[in-house]
Amino acid sequence: MELQTMHVQLAEKLQSHSLVTATISQPRQKSSDLKRIKLKPVELKEGYRIQFEYQYEQILKHQNLSIDQALAELERLFTEFRQGLFQFTDEKVQIQLTKKFKISYKSEASEQQVADLSHNRKKDYLLQDGVPYPFLVRLGVQSEDGKVKKQKYDKFRQINRFIEFIDDALEHLPQDRTIRILDFGSGKSYLTFALYHYLRIEKGLDLRVTGLDLKKSVIEECQQIARDLDYGQLEFLVGDINDYDKATAVDMVVTLHACDVATDMALARAVKWNAGVILSVPCCQHELNSQIQSSPLDIMLQHGLIKERFSALATDSIRAELLSMVGYETQLMEFIDMEHTPKNILIRAYRTNKKPADRQLERYREFTKLLSAKPFLENELKELL
Q: Hey, what's the signal peptide range on this chain (predicted)?
């Protein structure tokens, strides 16, 4: 069989949406870091796609391709690999290519198969259990063979959830220059290392990441880990959010569990830097708790526990509304399941420069007046409102 004929037959199968699974293996170059590629169909909001999972020595990479893109990618892969196993809905196909590209194409009927088009990210993690990632091994989340440690599995889930947010934000980051990212209150930096690994190692992006924290001992430890991993474009500095003045423009600002108004300081700085992406998981929202006075809400506010929780929700709602009014598309999202931590709300904001909706400022004023609230972030952004 000729190569062209083989590709025509594969094209007919893919175009009919009959693919169930496939594996491309046996690289021609023994030194190749890419060992195999698995294919499966998925149904996304963009429509039917073929997901390619590239299995390297230590990492997995994914991309979802249209049928035309998938066919072009298969043509490329069959110049670098010698075997393909395809399961279609009613047929199994085995393809073997010799060193001189002579093709063996074996087909046999199979019992009717049904393709699973689900794309469940909670099960299909971007980082896989069983695949060793140097940063996760170094941070004690994985063993040397890539197995996630039992006591660290919640952290592993959190890291994967965070990477999903990073992946969703890619289209809002520049593609033609170095991406500048700041992580305020980086702490032990599990997520900072995850961000760097995903964007730099897996996506191959040109970026520079700075983690900032007040604890010198923690920063020194993170600096050493970054050196050990050879993460040359990741730095950690001791410093406070208000005092950091080494950047005039930033593309992404991350702030995770910055306490109380420290979150607002980071959000305000991000806005003034015109950051394209803001990801913030607030913590310890005490500001409104001491301000709220509203007799219509006394049935709630008379209970300290309820008042604390209401104040936290009101604070994050105000933050999201203010970001929206200064040109961001803003959402409040679940970071990880409530069973793992009560601090599970993530503020995600993308700069769109969209003008506020009619009555949005008036509606905001009515809400803060109801609560007798004078939010710190409002004062920080007053020149932009």
A: none
Helices 304-325, 360-371: axis angle to 10 degrees equals: 160
CA dist., res. 374 & res. 261, Å (int): 12
User: How many other C-beta atoms are found inside a 10 Å radius of the C-beta of residue 345?
Assistant: 21
Read off the pLDDT band of 338 (50, 70, 90): very low
Could you give the angle at the alpha carbon of 40 between the alpha carbons of 35 and 44, nearest 5°?
125
- 131-162 pLDDT tens trace: 999 999 999 999 999 999 999 998 998 899 99
d(CA 254, CA 270): 9
Is the separation of the CB atoms in 335 and 348 below 8 Å?
A: no
Residue 255 CB contacts under 8 Å (≥ 6 apart), including other chains:
183, 184, 185, 241, 262, 263, 266, 267, 279, 280, 281
Q: What is the pTM of this model?
A: 0.68
Measured CA distances, 203 to 53, 171, 192, 341 (Å): 13, 13, 15, 30
CB atoms inside a 10 Å sphere around CB 99: 7
- Of 75, 90, 83, 78, nearest to 16 by C-alpha is 90
| pLDDT for 341 beyond 50 | no
Task: Please give the full DSSP string across 181-249, using - where no structure is assigned.
Answer: EEEET-TT-HHHHHHHIIIIIIS---EEEEEEES-HHHHHHHHHHHHHTT-TTEEEEE--TTT--S-S-
Residues 6+ apart with CB under 8 A from 305: none
